[in-house]
Design a protein that fits this description.
eight-stranded mixed sheet, five-stranded antiparallel sheet, single chain, Rossmann fold, alpha+beta
Length: 696
């Protein structure tokens, strides 16, 4: 079939659905409730829905899940939700106790009790510790799961919030300890204190016992910058204070704060830089020439911190990328750096240790499963680190490892939450419109017949240098794979699978390449006989919601179902909604006519047309999403409904950008989603086939 050509559009604020951007507006909320009830009435009435919802809830509430921990002061801290504690418990235990099959936990905060006692809809937002080893922390709590948090000082020894302690009202704050009695604070200080993106523009030093209004200003960023933040590196012997001006999503300036004076740390604006004891480590997003040498984008470099400030440093490459490898993560222990390398979209781990003035590297002997994640047990006093291994069909296993040794101590293992017997993982390549080879993973049964009759869900993201790696999806496995469905993950441009260049290839005016890559994967699935248009569905969230929205309007004949989650869709106004201005480095500025010329060509909200046949769409979002405005999904659904297109819309009240705030909400959201896909790609496709056969 002929692709739907993107239409030229002109910038216009004549939007008949602007009223749906009023998050809590009476008319908007009535529309949301009507559409939500309609979606629930249809999907929850399906025969398999109750059993699926119960099963997904049981997986999420299972006490057999791994209680991942972070170490502070020699103890392991964990946040945990289950059926008896839907809001969650913040708790701790010793390493020896953690090794047991059923550890004994010391409960510090019962969030369900706290929410009940205070009459608040609290959702956990994490803690910020006084380091090293302090008994005080800053607890972040949100109303309903948004990015904005209330911050309150907590005394761990007393198991209580500190009366008269540091407290900040709800805002998108950035806070860090300087010492027991002083904080770095970036928050909403009043008019003019936030950037256009809604993040802190000013960072101050706030002394205990003084009003926040009297805190001393440390740094002010520009209104059109993204944000500003400050922190203290508490590594003994290498204590330093830093301030970072985040100019855009991919550009920043770093300053050392010494005796109240800011000293700029020389680096490319688009590079990330941080201190590791006496070293400065820099990760490059573009090539860099320094000291008579040229280093490629994606490289990781190190040099003496003080020597670099003095202009005498010689950088040493810690990692140099190849066409198939990229740096995926970095963990710091007392004496080692652990580099997680992505090699053909599968992980391996490299350990680096200083030997004299040089770094020595060695590969860590690990099982070749798919994905690895590591984090330090205690980066100050220990060389131990945690490591998880996982794959599409292999549940996660958690190990404790000592840098310099290959002995792995298995601590916890996730049980199999779905039957993976007979499943195989394949890695294929599709050829995109411009000839680029695009890899993708397909998980399917070993005996899958290549006759195009397999219900298939294609998932993608393609933005912000985010890599999609093999991982164990307990919910998707139980809801889809176990019943014979095919699950596909596309590693399209815009992601980070092959380093910064793979991401930058789909930035701004090149965004169409990400959509072309995704379309190419869909076409390849059809050509291989894995699926067919009546059996193929696509799914994506956030930037991935933009992806599936754009592909929906460009190639609707390729699919029979679309799941569009917490999406960006109105690319004319995205930069004016919530945190949208912070993403102009990714998409461009729609107020610039030259840039709107290419943004408008793919903006789903502006490309959807009456009279065009589209696959059925399920939009999901959250009223309390304060990152990507729910107005995107609302307006797109309303426009499509008014044009006569088949649409379901479901909006959860809580959950923020995650779409759900607790296990019950998460189970319901995914049960609705997988029931929709089951109905579109299995049930209705079968009904259509039976009708066609009877008609012939």
């Amino acid at each position: 079939m002929t692709p739907s050509a993107p239409q030229e559009t002109r910038p216009s604020l004549d939007d008949p659905y602007l009223w749906l951007e009023e998050v809590d507006g009476e008319r908007a909320r009535a529309w949301v409730e009507d559409r939500k009830r309609a979606a629930e009435a249809e999907l929850e009435a399906q025969d398999g829905y109750p059993a699926l919802a119960a099963r997904l809830r049981a997986i999420l509430d299972s006490t057999d899940r791994i209680p991942y921990g972070r170490c502070h002061g020699g103890l392991l801290y964990n946040f945990w939700r289950d059926a008896g504690h839907p809001r969650g418990l913040w708790r701790r235990t010793t390493l020896d106790e953690y090794r047991k099959e059923a550890p004994s936990w010391d409960i510090l905060i019962d969030l369900d009790l706290l929410a009940r006692d205070e009459g608040e809809n609290w959702v956990w937002g994490g803690v910020t510790w006084l380091e090293p080893g302090g008994e005080r922390c800053l607890v972040s709590l949100s109303h309903g799961g948004g990015d904005a948090h209330v911050v309150r000082e907590f005394d761990v020894a007393a198991r209580a919030f500190v009366h008269g302690g540091f407290t900040l009202p709800e805002a998108k704050s950035d806070v860090a300890w300087i010492d027991h009695d002083t904080l770095f604070v970036g928050t909403d200080f009043g008019p003019g204190s936030l950037t256009e993106s809604g993040y802190p523009r000013i960072v101050k030093a706030w002394r205990r016992g003084t009003p926040l209004s009297e805190a001393a200003t440390v740094f002010e960023a520009g209104f059109d910058d993204l944000s500003v933040s400050a922190w203290r590196d508490a590594t003994p012997g290498f204590e330093r204070e830093f301030v970072q001006r985040q100019i855009g999503f991919y550009s920043s300036e770093l300053f050392l704060r010494r005796d109240g004076v800011l000293i700029k740390v020389p680096k490319p604006e688009d590079a990330n830089a941080f201190a590791v004891r006496d070293q400065l480590v820099i990760e490059l997003r573009s090539s860099w020439e320094i000291g008579g040498r040229s280093y490629p984008q994606g490289a990781l470099l190190a040099a003496g911190f003080d020597a670099h400030l003095e202009g005498t440093a010689q950088f040493e490459p810690l990692f140099l990328p190849s066409p198939t490898t990229s740096l995926d993560g970095l963990t710091v222990t007392r004496d080692a750096l652990l580099l997680t390398i992505l090699d053909k979209v599968k992980n391996r781990l490299v350990e680096l240790r200083r030997s004299g003035e040089k770094w020595q590297a060695r590969d860590v002997d690990l099982p070749a499963i798919g994905s690895l994640e590591s984090w330090a047990f205690d980066r100050v006093d220990s060389n131990r680190y945690f490591l998880t291994t996982t794959g599409f069909t292999e549940p996660s296993t958690l190990y404790l490892i000592e840098a310099g040794k290959d002995m792995r101590e298995p601590l916890k293992a996730m049980p199999a939450f779905f039957d993976a017997e007979g499943l195989q993982v394949h890695q294929f390549e599709a050829t995109s419109k411009d000839g680029t080879r695009v890899p993708y993973f397909a998980v399917m049964r070993r005996d899958t017949r290549l006759d195009g009759d397999n219900p298939t869900v294609l998932y993608g993201y393609g933005g912000f240098e985010v890599s999609l790696k093999p991982s164990y999806g307990a919910l998707s496995g139980a809801a889809w794979l176990e019943g014979g469905g095919v699950y596909v993950v596309a590693n399209i441009r815009g992601g980070g699978e092959f380093g910064p260049g793979w991401h930058q290839a789909a930035l701004k005016e090149h965004r169409q390449r990400a959509f072309d890559d995704f379309i190419a994967v869909a076409e390849d699935l059809i050509e291989r006989g894995i699926s067919s248009p009546r059996r193929l569905g696509i799914m994506g969230g956030s930037n991935g919601g933009l992806l599936v929205g754009a592909v929906l309007t460009q190639r609707p004949e390729l699919f029979n179902a679309v799941v569009c989650q917490v999406p960006l869709l109105d690319m004319r106004r995205y930069h004016q909604l919530l945190a949208g201005a912070s993403w102009m480095g990714e998409y461009g500025d729609p107020d610039d006519p030259a840039e709107w010329a290419w943004i408008g060509r793919y903006s789903p909200y502006h490309q959807v047309r009456a009279g065009q046949r589209y696959p059925r769409v399920l939009f999901t979002t959250s009223t309390r999403d304060d990152r990507v405005h729910p107005g995107h999904a609302r307006k797109m659904a309303a426009r499509m409904l008014d044009q006569g297109h088949p649409v379901l819309y479901w909006e959860n009240l809580d959950g923020g950008h995650a779409g759900a705030a607790d296990n019950a909400q998460t189970a319901r959201m995914w049960a609705l989603t997988w029931t929709f896909l089951q109905r579109q790609l299995r049930d209705q496709a079968q009904e259509a086939m039976r009708w066609a056969n009877s008609a012939s």
